[in-house]
Amino acid sequence: MAALIAPSILSADFANLERDLHAISTADYAHVDVMDNHFVPNLTLGLPVFERLAQVSPVPIDAHLMIEDPDRWAPAYAEAGAASVTFHAEAAAAPVRLARELRRLGSRAGVALRPATPVEPFLDLLAEVDMILVMTVEPGFGGQSFIDGTLPKIRRAREAVSESGLDVWIQVDGGVSRSTIERAADAGANVFVAGSAVYGAESVPGEIQALRELAEASAHAH
Ligand SMILES: O=C(CO)[C@H](O)[C@H](O)COP(=O)(O)O
């Protein structure tokens, strides 16, 4: 399975977001973290900034909404041009209705799970989403260390997707680096978000390529 790399601009220079989006032009997606200081204790950017990022980005945008009331706010991110919009399972009142609305607006629909949120309740609803995001750190901040305890959840999600025959992607986000990406790929993830590992690297394109190769080698090994 091809590994998709989505650098997180949370680790970019917020005074130079356009420049730093162009720095990741060899990536598959640009991962944009929207945080509202309520769902998570951090605040990043909202719709007006997001709309401009979508206009200038050389790669499709993967929006990760760490916000309360995504039922109300998420569709606007699809309308702004996000290729994919992921909302949190813990925050959505009606996840299936929201996923259908995002797809109707032309975006992929993703559902995100905090490390302690079980995936089981969503396994019967796989046909309604395009991606499950298994958070591999507590959402809110970059630079945290990968939680190995999330690997069984990635495995369960991958098994359920394989059994279903559906093309649902499994994304991991948090603490993804050269030293952890193989474990996540081996468990079944195929979309990898990495913030500090990519933007902190000496060569940003070199790091994207290294992560992609490690993930693909690991995915092909089993
Ligand atoms: O959602 C996130 C944190 O909530 C991020 O995408 C975060 O940027 C990941 O950063 P790092 O790769 O440095 O762990």
Short note summarizing the structure:
It comes from Cellulosimicrobium protaetiae. This protein has 9 helices and 8 strands.
Structure in words:
By secondary structure, the chain is of the alpha/beta class. The chain has one domain (4-220): TIM Barrel. Helix content is 37%, strand content 18%. It has 9 helices and 8 strands. It has helices at residues 17-22, 47-56, 70-79, 95-104, 120-123, 151-164, 181-187, 196-199, 204-220; strands spanning 4-7, 30-35, 61-66, 84-88, 108-113, 131-135, 169-173, 191-194. An 8-stranded parallel β-sheet has the order 1-8-7-6-5-4-3-2. Helix 3 packs parallel to helix 4 (95-104) and helix 7 packs parallel to helix 9 (204-220). The N and C termini lie close together (11 Å). It binds ribulose-5-phosphate. Ribulose-5-phosphate (5RP) binds next to strand 2, strand 8 and helix 8.
Architecture blueprint of SSEs:
Layout: E1 4-7, H1 17-22, E2 30-35, H2 47-56, E3 61-66, H3 70-79, E4 84-88, H4 95-104, E5 108-113, H5 120-123, E6 131-135, H6 151-164, E7 169-173, H7 181-187, E8 191-194, H8 196-199, H9 204-220
Parallel strand pairs: 1-8, 2-3, 3-4, 4-5, 5-6, 6-7, 7-8
The protein binds ribulose-5-phosphate.
* Helix/strand order, N-terminal first: EHEHEHEHEHEHEHEHH
> Which word captures the global form?
globular
CATH-level-2 architecture: Alpha-Beta Barrel
Q: Poorly predicted ranges (pLDDT <50, ≥5 residues)?
A: none
CATH superfamily: Aldolase class I
Estimate what percentage of residues fall within beta strands: 15-25%
Ligand types: ribulose-5-phosphate
| Highest CATH level, the class | Alpha Beta
Helical content class? 25-40%
Number of strands: 8
| First-last Cα distance | 11 Å
Q: How much is the average pLDDT? A: 97
Rounded radius of gyration (Å): 16 Å
Number of domains: 1
Number of helices: 9
Main pleated-sheet profile: 8 strands, parallel
Q: In CATH terms, what is the fold-level topology?
A: TIM Barrel
The helix-and-strand class reads alpha/beta
Q: Widest sheet: strand order?
A: 1-8-7-6-5-4-3-2
InterPro entries: Aldolase_TIM (IPR013785), Ribul_P_3_epim (IPR026019), Ribul_P_3_epim-like (IPR000056), RibuloseP-bd_barrel (IPR011060)
Keywords: Carbohydrate metabolism, Cobalt, Isomerase, Manganese, Metal-binding, Zinc
GO molecular function: D-ribulose-phosphate 3-epimerase activity; metal ion binding
Pathway: Carbohydrate degradation
